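We were asked to recover a plausible sequence for a given structure. The inputs and outputs are reproduced exactly as logged, with field labels preserved.

PROBLEM: sequence recovery
POSITIONS: 197
GIVEN STRUCTURE:
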């Protein structure tokens, strides 16, 4: 999960600079992020340390506040049918953008209607560009999400922009995802888990 997370954010307009600034501190190169050797425990540990500094991984802070133990990770393919079950993390900007629903499908409808202009902190240009690329068959790095075997709800951890673009593109094709499965009780303790799920 750590390697996938860093791969997704090293070129991010929001997080990329921070990731690249931290790499030398932990004796990592961009190549070690873009093409990680997952069989090297030392590299894995150093990548985890980078994610800990700027996102709170294994620090019980920031994005990973009250993150549960025992989450098992699987690469899966999401499709149009999954969109109804996907929720943003419970962050104020995504809650507002989705009309207090945390549903990317609702946010995508707002974009289609053109009533999203007041959301300055939402990367609308990127969402629209990615949606166009997806409609043209371009593949993207996996989004990262969590869910539970007791519920069909899937909650985004990383990739809010890409999942919105996928909804805007009408769920055409499949979207690669790294899905973490854990017990519902543990996931509900995560700081960003939607309160109504």
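RECOVERED SEQUENCE:
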């Amino acid at each position: 999960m750590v390697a996938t997370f860093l791969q997704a954010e090293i070129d991010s307009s929001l997080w990329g600079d921070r990731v690249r600034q931290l790499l030398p501190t932990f004796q990592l190169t961009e190549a070690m992020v873009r093409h990680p050797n997952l069989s090297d425990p030392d590299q894995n540990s150093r990548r985890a340390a980078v994610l800990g500094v700027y996102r709170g991984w294994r620090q019980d802070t920031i994005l990973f506040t009250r993150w549960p133990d025992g989450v098992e990770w699987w690469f899966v393919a999401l499709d149009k049918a999954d969109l109804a079950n996907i929720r943003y993390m419970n962050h104020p900007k995504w809650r507002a953008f989705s009309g207090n629903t945390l549903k990317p499908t609702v946010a995508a409808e707002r974009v289609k209607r053109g009533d999203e202009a007041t959301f300055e902190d939402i990367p609308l240009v990127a969402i629209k560009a990615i949606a166009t690329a997806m409609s043209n068959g371009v593949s993207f790095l996996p989004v990262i999400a969590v869910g539970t075997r007791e519920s069909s709800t899937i909650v985004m951890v990383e990739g809010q922009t890409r999942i919105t673009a996928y909804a805007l593109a009408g769920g055409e094709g499949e979207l690669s995802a790294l899905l973490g499965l854990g017990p519902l009780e543990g996931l509900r303790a995560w700081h960003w888990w939607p309160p109504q799920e």
